[in-house]
Amino acid sequence: MIRDGIMREVTSAGGVVWRLGSDGVVEIVVCSLREPLSWRLPKGTPDSGESVEQTALREVREETGLQVRSHGYIDSVDYEFNGYEDGIRYHKVVHFYLMTAVGGDVSLHDNEFDFVEWVASDEAARTLTFDTEAYIVQKAVSMVVREACAD
């Protein structure tokens, strides 16, 4: 049962980690649970005293096993959901950053996800469970292409 009139604001941050695959296609890291199968971008909530970008870097590192570097802000998405245990309605804003891997390996990811994989960006946009995250991937790829054209 949802408690009337109560809405809590929460913030989360994550990243779109990209690389250029051997075939010249932009690849993106996506994460999934086994049950229920749900493909997502890595993200999470801030620790005390962290900036939004620091949260994004830490969460991506923990959830993917990759050491990453930020290349700037992509955009944010927001949505509402009901808290199952507390009966409170939440409004969540998730901030995403464009990132590249500078070390690590996806095999070193934490236990929050069962699968962490590199996939072609167009496949990632089709595979992600949430349309808002597919939008973020498309925007990230546009940033990568724009940056490549400027070089």
Explained architecture:
By secondary structure, the protein is of the alpha+beta class. Helix content is 26%, strand content 44%. It is built from 3 helices and 7 strands; from the N terminus they run ββββαβββαα. It has helices at 52-64, 121-127, 131-150, and strands at 7-20, 26-33, 38-40, 43-44, 66-82, 89-104, 115-120. Strands 1, 2, 3, 4, 5, 6 and 7 form a 7-stranded mixed beta sheet that branches. A hairpin with a 6-residue loop joins strand 5 and strand 6 (89-104). Helix 2 (121-127) runs antiparallel to helix 3 (131-150). The longest helix has 20 residues, at 131-150. It is globular and about 50 Å long. The N and C termini lie far apart (55 Å). The mean pLDDT is 92.
Compact overview of the structure:
The protein contains three helices and seven strands. By secondary structure, it is of the alpha+beta class. The longest helix has 20 residues, at 131-150.
Backbone CA Rg? 16 Å
Number of beta strands: 7
Through-space gap between termini: 55 Å
- Share of β-strand residues: 35-45%
Q: Largest sheet at a glance?
A: 7 strands, mixed
Percent helix, as a range, is 25-40%
Order of helices and strands: EEEEHEEEHH
- Number of H- or I-type helical stretches: 3
The stretches of 5 or more residues where confidence is low (pLDDT under 50) are none
Structural class category: alpha+beta
